[in-house]
Predict the structure of Aspartate aminotransferase.
Amino acid sequence: MGSLPIPDSQFAHLDQFPMDEAFMIMRDFALDTHPGKVSLGAGVYRDNDAKPWVLPSVRKAEQLVVQDPNIDHEYQPMSGHPPFVPLAQELTFGPLMASLSNRIVTCQTISGTGANHFAAVFLSQVLSAKRVWISNPTWGNHHLLWDISAPQVKQQLYSYYNAKTCSLDFDGMIQTLDTEAQPGDIILLHACAHNPTGIDPTPEQWKIIADVCERKRLFPFFDSAYQGFASGDLDQDAYAIRLFAERGFELAVAQSFSKNFGLYGQRVGALHIVVSRSEVAAPTQSHLTKLVRGEFSTAPVHGARIVTQILSDSSLRKQWYADLQVMSSRLKDMRRALYDELRRLGTPGSWEHIVDQIGMFSYTGLNAKQVARLRDEQHIYMMASGRASIAGLNTSNVAAVAAAIDAIVRAEQQA
Ligand SMILES: Cc1ncc(COP(=O)(O)O)c(C=O)c1O
């Protein structure tokens, strides 16, 4: 009597949300039964046998962690696993710790994605920012993340990539920021190994970016997902963050331990906020802690323990530095091998950008049609934007990948 009809489902109005492209490529690659298939899609490190690589330092540290009779599974403080937090700070800020340590506010997060999410929630609320400036292009998840975490903040794009020269559009970037950015806007900067282009500003260009941020009173927010993984040198990869911190900016850093420790599934990360006065640190920390409480209460501890074990033991730390060299050198070697092979084949076009770029990814310059043909005809998988994960290359497949690119580029030229 008078009761409402029961709908068949209260979720029936939902459309299928498109799957994330990187994960779609992983699924399609897994379904492909061709023996010569190559995955250049996912942003994960692979060894020369195309296998996941557990870093020797991580393997050893994990054994020590699980064998430690004093380890328990208690909740950690809301700011994170206590010994992990200063080590994470030290990795990011290095020698600046001496002057900054009482002005850095940190909470452990659910890896780099969680740190990005927290930064978006926290900065948008606390700074009442109206806009966030994001590079065009950027890691695809940045857009979704700011959409979900801070829908009231308008996402604005600054120019970053010149498709004609496959290089940084530095003038375009500076001009956009100079003419359109407003005081109080947030600017999202990739600390190193820009995803997806693999193109970073030079130290001189970083200084000019810092000048614009100062002039326009922008709040710098660094996404640091590849420290040590990019160049093999932790200090070099933290250059931009430290430059800004040294110049006295208040800033935020989203730090991921996924790539540089190969701890993808453990979800280890941290969000750091540098404040200009030490008195501001405690209240800032309390607001961050409140957010943690309201979202996940305390962060997972196992991965943080592994990182702590490595960073606080000098021989394990040394091993980790060597592991970083193994990964970054292999990526550099594969860039060179792909470039050399394309040159040897005389593949039309200029391919220098492949060796000039840095880190996990190369923005190859291949277009969406060429990428589709590589997948359908050659069983080689990469993002439609032409982003290739260099980690998917190895000494057994690089010649075949170059030959496939050569065939596709030539076929298009003849059509
Ligand atoms: C630019 C950038 N930021 C953040 C992340 C976050 O990674 P995770 O959540 O695995 O730490 C990634 C991962 O690919 C990335 O490329």
About this structure: The pocket of pyridoxal-5'-phosphate is lined by residues 43, 111-113, 116, 139, 190, 195, 223, 225, 256, 258, 264, 269 (CB under 6 Å). The chain has 16 helices and 13 strands.
